[in-house]
Amino acid sequence: MLRIPHTLYHDLRQHGEATYPHECCGILLGQVDGDTRTVEEVVRCGNTRADSPHNRYHIAPQELIAAQRRARETGADIIGFYHSHPDHPPQWSPTDFAEAHWIGCSYLITSVEKGTAWVTNSFALCGTVEENKRFEGEEIQKL
Ligand SMILES: [Zn+2]
């Protein structure tokens, strides 16, 4: 389960509206307790993938490192990632799955229909290693 304050939930959805018709992406910092992740901070990232920004997202290594440092400073962890699907359903794509490597993290996808954030789904990346990883839909609990 992913627990997230209303304001942060709104923030990550609004990010998808701001970058429309391109995808947005970002990192979630917070706390982990078993299978429950609680978001404390949303870190917006630039969409640095130039080839096809409307249906591919990519977080630059520098942004990931900065987020890791930020997490360490605040006693948090990287607990998830989010991106948007402009005019596409909020379901993970084969590319999303192939590029997901953070087992134990949540991956949020927001569909943005004609510029308006619509549905946000969260998928936990389960398993133990790259070879048996899988996405499982999880509940989003707004705080
Ligand atoms: Zn995607």
Description of the molecule:
The protein has 143 residues and is α/β, with parallel strands linked by helices. The chain has a single domain, classed as Cytidine Deaminase, domain 2 (3-Layer(aba) Sandwich), CATH 3.40.140. Helices cover 23% and strands 41% of the residues. The protein is built from three helices and eight strands. The two termini are 12 Å apart. Zinc ion (ZN) binds next to β4.
Question: What portion of residues belong to β-strands?
Answer: 35-45%
Widest beta sheet: strand line-up: 7-6-5-4-2-3-1-8
How many angstroms does the end-to-end distance come to? Answer: 12 Å
Bound molecules: zinc ion
Give a topology summary.
Elements: E1 2-4, H1 6-19, E2 25-33, E3 36-45, H2 61-74, E4 77-86, H3 94-98, E5 106-113, E6 116-126, E7 134-138, E8 140-142
Parallel strand pairs: 1-3, 1-8, 4-5
Antiparallel strand pairs: 2-3, 2-4, 5-6, 6-7
A few lines on this structure:
By secondary structure, the protein is an alpha/beta fold. Helices cover 23% and strands 41% of the residues. It has an eight-stranded mixed β-sheet.
List keywords for this structure.
single chain; 143 residues; alpha/beta; Cytidine Deaminase, domain 2; 3 helices; globular; binds zinc ion
